[in-house]
């Protein structure tokens, strides 16, 4: 494990306890706006509209987030634009690397003291960013560190996008050895339930996939949006006619267990959630990713593999089994490897495409929310994000 240099918190950073209880969205950033919106903002400052394209080219095309590095802009103009369209949204608190530098995790402090995490994962043929869409999460899944922390607030469009632009810059620097120097995939599998922050996540996807300089120019097919099964939002996503991949965090094929593991199942049952997922696959032609955390003696029984196989047989779906990364003090543990292999065998025997997710980041509190939880505990032994107001 390698601990990377950390940018220290400014002395005037607001107190974490206070800000978690006073939910405020961050100042406007250029990534909150489409190109026309940026042009309107620039002209309102009394500057020519082409400055918006210049600024956008720096941010999305060259991955420059620091206004001081935009040296082709006059100093006075640079200061003016920075103050209005490039506020600091994310301040790194801790940056850690493992897997010989192929996995890099960043813990961010937001303007109000809330904490979020993002991860960069390098492979021989690609680099993937895993980003957060909320500070905390309101879904209350008991085996998830983020779910147990509760929801602080939704992230803004720009807070989501800025994570990706930063990580794309890390990739472009060549810091992830053995991988191509271009970020090519983004997964919304960090902190939060993306579809509970639907409008902002959707606009973030549009920024990430719009061609430069309006956006980052990623392929929609290389974006994955996960959900625990918010059926109305899933059906709303179908109507958008995007080609992003939908990942459904199922974790149990039967309602009795899923009611416990994924409490939102008490509102939308397995059959209804899968129906919405299959309709998304039919509309988009994109295979659904079924995420299934393998939890020892909880959801890893052979009969549950058989039931899952029956539910998915003949469907445009792929099962991604996830060896659980236990959180400190948790009663939950990963399934033994022989149990995992039998689960895989039964699913494949049923004709269901199945893989086991590569286990990464265990040295750096890789499970989503672990790093934020440890940092918040260190700075605030007496409070938690669950005490915060919820901004929807």
Tell me, rounded to a whole number, the average pLDDT.
88
Task: Enumerate the strands of the largest sheet in spatial order, edge to edge or round the barrel.
Answer: 1-2-3-4-5-8-9-10-11-12-13
Structural Rg: 21 Å
Give the overall shape: elongated
The number of helical elements comes to 13
Quickly name the level 1 CATH class of the largest domain. Answer: Alpha Beta
Oligomeric status of the shown chains? single chain
Task: Tell me the number of strands.
Answer: 13
Q: What CATH architecture of the largest domain do you see?
A: Alpha-Beta Barrel
Provide a descriptive summary of the structure in words:
The protein is an alpha/beta fold and 392 residues long. The protein has two domains: 31-87, Orthogonal Bundle (DNA polymerase, domain 1), CATH 1.10.150; 88-381, TIM Barrel (Alpha-Beta Barrel), CATH 3.20.20.70. It has helices at 16-21, 35-44, 50-61, 75-85, 145-149, 157-172, 198-209, 231-240, 255-261, 270-284, 302-312, 337-349, 370-379; strands spanning 2-4, 91-98, 103-109, 115-123, 126-130, 134-136, 151-154, 185-188, 223-227, 245-249, 288-294, 317-323, 353-356.
Task: Give a nutshell description of this structure.
This protein has 392 residues and is an alpha/beta fold. The chain is 35% helix and 18% strand. The protein has helices at 16-21, 35-44, 50-61, 75-85, 145-149, 157-172, 198-209, 231-240, 255-261, 270-284, 302-312, 337-349, 370-379, and strands at 2-4, 91-98, 103-109, 115-123, 126-130, 134-136, 151-154, 185-188, 223-227, 245-249, 288-294, 317-323, 353-356.
